[in-house]
């Protein structure tokens, strides 16, 4: 009899919950965590073994050991924009997770990262362009990546998502009604939820470990074109770009991911799937 494959997903929010549901559909035994006790019944209703996990920087032995009983472990908790002293706190939180995972049965980790690790280089960026970032949030994410990439107990794959959009997450609200002192000519870097789910599942099921990948839609429409369009479609005031200041940018290249997985984006152009 074939043993049921098990996976633990740390962070079952906007991305993590549909991801957990997708693995349940594929007959995996799924353990999922939330930081809100009132969400535990929702996980259980969806056949996800529920855990209440709050990760603190100095946490050692008080995370439920049973949550770390899966061989495959997905980490999907971003640092948070309001996290005080984020560049120090978030890597420490991930060190706590790494300690707990090392004491469990975890052998393979997929860390959901961000393209915030790249500075604005005014060109295309690839996986090799991530060094110690200038911005605090990016620095926190980059340091957290190193916790798992350098850990001897795990095979770790990093997937760096750009801006996420999809159901109940309309990017139009981000800049709606604002006046921005730039041209808006810089391209956007976005990825649809459906592609995020498909990419993670493919990486796990095909056993692609020990790698770092960017994940971003092929097309990079200009900020002015994209945000004005999606704001209007959402019934919001479109942002105004005044052309007063030059704008630095980066265009995230996902060629490595597409080649390794032979992957074609379900939503290659954000303008056509808003």
Account of the 3D structure:
Helix content is 30%, strand content 22%. The chain has a single domain (6-168, 189-221, 250-272), classed as Rossmann fold (3-Layer(aba) Sandwich). The protein is globular, with a radius of gyration of 19 Å. The longest helix is centred in the middle third of the chain and has 18 residues, at 86-103. The protein has 8 helices and 13 strands. By secondary structure, it is an alpha/beta fold. 41% of the residues are buried. It has a 7-stranded parallel sheet, with helices on both faces. A two-stranded parallel sheet has the order 6-13. Strands 8-10 form a two-stranded parallel ribbon. The chain has helices at 16-25, 40-45, 86-103, 136-149, 172-175, 193-205, 223-233, 255-261, and strands at 6-10, 29-34, 49-52, 72-75, 108-114, 123-125, 155-161, 163-165, 179-182, 190-192, 212-215, 240-245, 250-252.
Supply the key terms.
274 residues, single chain, alpha/beta, two-stranded parallel ribbon, seven-stranded parallel sheet, 13 strands
Short recap of the structure:
By secondary structure, this protein is an alpha/beta fold.
């Amino acid at each position: 009899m074939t043993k049921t494959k098990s996976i633990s997903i740390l962070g079952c929010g906007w991305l993590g919950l549909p991801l957990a549901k997708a693995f349940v559909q594929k007959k995996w035994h799924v353990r999922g965590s939330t930081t809100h006790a009132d969400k535990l019944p929702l996980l259980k209703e969806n056949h996800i073994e529920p855990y209440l996990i709050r990760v603190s920087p100095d946490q050692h032995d008080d995370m439920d050991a049973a949550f770390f009983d899966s061989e495959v472990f997905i980490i999907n908790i971003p640092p948070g924009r309001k996290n005080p002293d984020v560049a120090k706190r978030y890597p420490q939180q991930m060190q706590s997770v790494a300690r707990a995972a090392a004491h469990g049965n975890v052998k393979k980790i997929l860390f959901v990262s961000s393209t915030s690790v790249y500075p604005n280089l005014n060109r295309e960026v690839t996986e090799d362009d991530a060094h110690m970032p200038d911005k605090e949030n990016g620095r926190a994410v980059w340091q957290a990546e190193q916790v798992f990439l350098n850990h001897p107990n795990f095979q770790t794959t990093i997937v760096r998502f750009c801006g996420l959009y999809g159901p109940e997450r309309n990017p139009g609200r981000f800049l709606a009604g604002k006046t921005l002192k730039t041209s808006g000519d810089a391209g956007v870097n976005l990825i649809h939820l459906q592609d995020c789910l498909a990419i993670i599942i493919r990486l796990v099921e095909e056993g692609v470990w020990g790698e770092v990948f960017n994940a971003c839609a092929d097309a990079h429409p200009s900020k002015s074109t994209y945000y004005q369009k999606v704001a209007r479609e959402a019934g919001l005031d479109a942002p105004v770009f005044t052309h007063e200041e030059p704008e630095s940018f980066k265009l995230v290249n996902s060629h490595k991911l597409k080649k390794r997985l032979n992957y074609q984006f379900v939503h290659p152009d954000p303008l056509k799937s808003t």
